[in-house]
Amino acid sequence: MKIGIACYPTYGGSGVIATELGKALAEKGHEVHFISYNQPARLDSYLQNIYYHEVNINSYPLFDHLPYETILASRFVDIVKTNHLDLLHVHYAIPHASAALMARSILMEQDIYCPVITTLHGTDITLVGKDPTYEPVVAYSINQSNGVTAVSNSLRQETYDHFKIKKEIEVIPNFIDFTRFSKQAKSHFKKAIAPNDEKIIIHTSNFRKVKRVDDVIRIFAGIHKEIKSKLLLVGDGPERGVIEHMCKEYNVCDNVLFLGKQEAIEEVLSVGDLFLLPSETESFGLAALEAMACEVPVISTNAGGLPEVNINGVTGFACDVGDVETMSQKAIYILSDEERHEKFKKNSLAQAQKYNITEVLPLYVAYYNKVLNECQKITANY
Ligand code: GMT
């Protein structure tokens, strides 16, 4: 198959999933064309069957705001025609889905039919998509795509609840590549961070408000009162300044390390004892799954798709949004008993294994084939 994959190139979960999916498809012999305004973060080396097409955004004095969607649609048309793509798979509805649909219409006028599959990732529905500024276009894009997938049952349901959707949405969960994410022996690193055998608590995110990193500090302050511990904060973003200030307020500065953006996140996770993800909303929580694959139990909220990934009382605990007191108590419960901690670690790994890319990739391939078969019926009626 020849597949065009459009995604955001940044460190966000949707870009990561799109890139890892493309790499896995290419390894199976499919031809994959990435389309983005920058090289996707995880597309960092030459790989057979993979092509990258940059969307160049040229300015013009008239434009206060660049018409990115128009540029992207034109680029889709050109790439589909030149490379004879079988389908376009776009990740994150805004603006990829509507641009792809515009491209599909243009191509139809030239007797080329290129189906569009849209994968919903979360904020394209839960935060941005619901905004009336985007809502009609998001609903239209979902209804008009040839196929639509969501990364969790919760996101699927939320999409049905908030938009007028006639389309059947298929749930294909996010996945983990165990050749990369598994616990590694990093005792030197661990010793350097926690010289007195402190427990290592980790949070990774893009430090946006929705991640409630302020709650991470509050939860950690509660844990630290009872248990010798260090907090590693991985990532960066708009809330970073506020969080640095909070560390002073809660008197935990000496025990909180800001590591910034890290490429080899699996190495950091490998020294972790517990992962915190107290998000306001999270369609899936890929960061939690990556932690679990490295045998790190998770304390999260029960928002969105998180309880589908982090099984309450088994792989960690999923608590109400903002209930930092309970989250601290549950963390202490896990960390204060070695045998119990081991059980949670084992359960976390077992749960992560259900999301092995080797299990999830065939679901995408089967879905592509289903959509292509349906489209053959459409083109037969031309
Ligand atoms: O969470 C983010 O800030 C990034 C965002 C994205 O679109 O890249 O993540 C969303 O997609 C991820 C991959 O499917 C999910 O694991 C995240 O839960 C989801 N984020 C939210 O729903 C807030």
Tags for this model:
binds ligand GMT; alpha/beta; Rossmann fold; seven-stranded parallel β-sheet; 15 helices; elongated; 382 residues
Structural summary, described in words:
The protein has two domains: 2-175 and 357-380, 3-Layer(aba) Sandwich (Rossmann fold); 187-353, Rossmann fold (3-Layer(aba) Sandwich), CATH 3.40.50.2000. Helices cover 45% and strands 16% of the residues. The chain has 15 helices and 13 strands. The protein has helices at residues 13-27, 68-83, 93-108, 123-126, 135-144, 153-162, 187-193, 213-226, 240-249, 265-269, 286-293, 306-309, 324-335, 338-353, 357-380, and strands at 2-6, 31-36, 50-54, 87-91, 116-120, 147-150, 169-171, 199-204, 229-234, 256-260, 274-277, 298-301, 316-319. Helix 6 links the parallel strand 6 and strand 7. Helix 2 crosses helix 3 and helix 11 crosses helix 14. The protein is elongated. The two termini are 23 Å apart. The mean pLDDT is 94. Bound molecules: ligand GMT. Residues 12-15, 17, 92, 121-123, 126, 151, 174, 206, 208, 210, 281-286 line the site of ligand GMT. The site of ligand GMT has 21 residues, from helix 1 and helix 4.
Widest sheet: strand ordering: 3-2-1-4-5-6-7
Bound molecules: ligand GMT
Radius of gyration: 22 Å
Q: Write out the CATH superfamily name of the largest domain.
A: Glycogen Phosphorylase B
Uncertain stretches of 5 or more adjacent residues = none
Mean pLDDT: 94
Structural class: alpha/beta
**Total domains:** 2
The total count of helices amounts to 15
Topology:
Elements: E1 2-6, H1 13-27, E2 31-36, E3 50-54, H2 68-83, E4 87-91, H3 93-108, E5 116-120, H4 123-126, H5 135-144, E6 147-150, H6 153-162, E7 169-171, H7 187-193, E8 199-204, H8 213-226, E9 229-234, H9 240-249, E10 256-260, H10 265-269, E11 274-277, H11 286-293, E12 298-301, H12 306-309, E13 316-319, H13 324-335, H14 338-353, H15 357-380
Parallel strand pairs: 1-2, 1-4, 2-3, 4-5, 5-6, 6-7, 8-9, 8-11, 9-10, 11-12, 12-13
The structure holds ligand GMT.
Ligand GMT is lined by residues 12-15, 17, 92, 121-123, 126, 151, 174, 206, 208, 210, 281-286.
